[in-house]
Amino acid sequence: MPRTHEPGSSDRPAVSGRAAPAQYGALGPDRNWHLGAGLILVATAVAFTIWAFTHTGTGVNSFILILAIAFGLFMAFNIGGNDVANSFGTSVGAGTLTMKQALVVAAVFEVSGAVLAGGSVTETVRSGIVDLGGLQSDAPAFAYIMMSALLGAAVWLLLATRMGWPVSTTHAIIGGIVGAAVTTGLVTGTGGLAMVQWGEIGQIAVSWVLSPLLGGIAAYLLFGAIKRRILAPAARAIALGSRGFDEDDDEDDDNDASEDESRHVPGYERVTELQQSAFAESAELDRRPGSPGAELVEQAGQLSKKERKAARNVERKAAYHALEKRVPPLAAGAAVVIAAMLMFKGLGNVGLEFTLWRAGVMLIMLAVGVWMATTVFARALRKQTISRATFIMFSWLQVFTACAFAFSHGANDIANAVGPFAAVLDVLRTGTVSQEAAVPMAVLVAFGVALIAGLWFVGRKVIHTVGTGLTSMHPSSGFAAELAAAATVLLASVLGLPVSSTHILIGAVLGVGIVNRAANWKLMRPIFLAWIITLPAAAGIGAVTVLLLRALLLA
């Protein structure tokens, strides 16, 4: 799945002479993809609507059901545009996946996570944030609250997505429920601000700081170690003119003869753009006066041919040794973290309970298998250039973390759209409010398709923010950010800490940027402000929506 051509290169064949301007339709070069995704979404919506009418029965209010379906699919669409895009931002930004490849991976693993581990039942009152006890006997009012929450959260998510701000979809749906419920309580005299569990709101506020801080620390430590122990030897070998393990050193010496060339890191101009991306994330990228990179350039330029050849052989062997001896345990540890996250945050939703002893045995077996497989893979890359071997190794590691993230996301965060909608569907079918509502498979499939469509149609700005806006991403740094985020989410779940996976991943990206001295703090300011605004903004839109629904449907 990693790219096999240089980043930025075209898939179209070159032509001699002056290139004719490309002729694209109104939908641009991806016209067929746009049309295909749009048709699949429309067909899914139509089929799902037909199913919903048969599921709820003939006595259902058609207008309310159609509105609920529209609001629910719209919410799932915007979760895809913001939350799923946030999850794939590091992979696309690093060049590990193209946008189309990300769409395919998301289609397979997001939908699989939603269908296989999305849960057969969902709580109708989300997270205990607001007390709806006074409205339990008023089924229509309860349905309007959930519908308004869906629209309130979806509208805010769309606005944030259009600005390129990755925000928490969980906080958005909570805000929508709070705003709609409090407004309904005030209008009907059954409650007010006292309905809100302010302690839970306080935990959300804590997560604004705790989540990115934990993710940032984890990524800073992990990527810093990767740079020092794995990437730095490869960077030094490239700076000394080395290209591969069995290359002809005499040929390199001829190419390095010029003193002017040696002053500009010999060999660096000869590597491809793909190779440069691996070198660019090394510890020697910073070549400002006094930096390690500047010292390395100066030292390399002062070496004689014989000294350069000897140093090149040492660093070249050290680079391949790092790939063969240090990457496999890293990959094994990553496999354990990802598998543990899937066990406890994904498969646990379908009732697959793992005892500590059984889970431990399975994780150990997995770690050993991954260690051995990665060692064999690293040895197979010995004939590749140093930069390309490093790029390929971390690209594949990042593909696996991206797939696991997609499955876990589909298994968990789809509930932000499915939960309220399932509650409305249950009310329309039974006429009563239940503490838990069944989630039919058709709902999970339809909302999964809407999720993927949202990623394709509106997710690019968020992907740009996460993948290139906050800091420059490459396969090893993207892998480090994703693994650090996964480990932090898992640890926070075990400890019961109030965190947001979205905020954790953003913190991890910033942690990578700090290691590279390239974090874009200016862009982080509006993102942090958007985190704070998310809950009140969704609450305000939800409040207005519930007033409109009550005026329209209860008149």
UniProtKB/TrEMBL annotation:
Residues 246-259 have a biased composition (Acidic residues). Residues 244-267, 282-309 are annotated as: Disordered. The keyword Transport applies. It is a multi-pass membrane protein. One of its GO terms (molecular function) is phosphate transmembrane transporter activity. GO terms for cellular component: membrane. The keyword Transport applies. One of its GO terms (biological process) is phosphate ion transmembrane transport. It is found in: Membrane. Keywords: Membrane, Phosphate transport, Transmembrane, Transmembrane helix, Transport. The chain crosses the membrane at residues 33-54, 60-81, 102-121, 141-160, 172-195, 201-223, 327-344, 356-377, 389-407, 437-458, 527-553. Belongs to the inorganic phosphate transporter (PiT) (TC 2.A.20) family. This is Phosphate transporter.
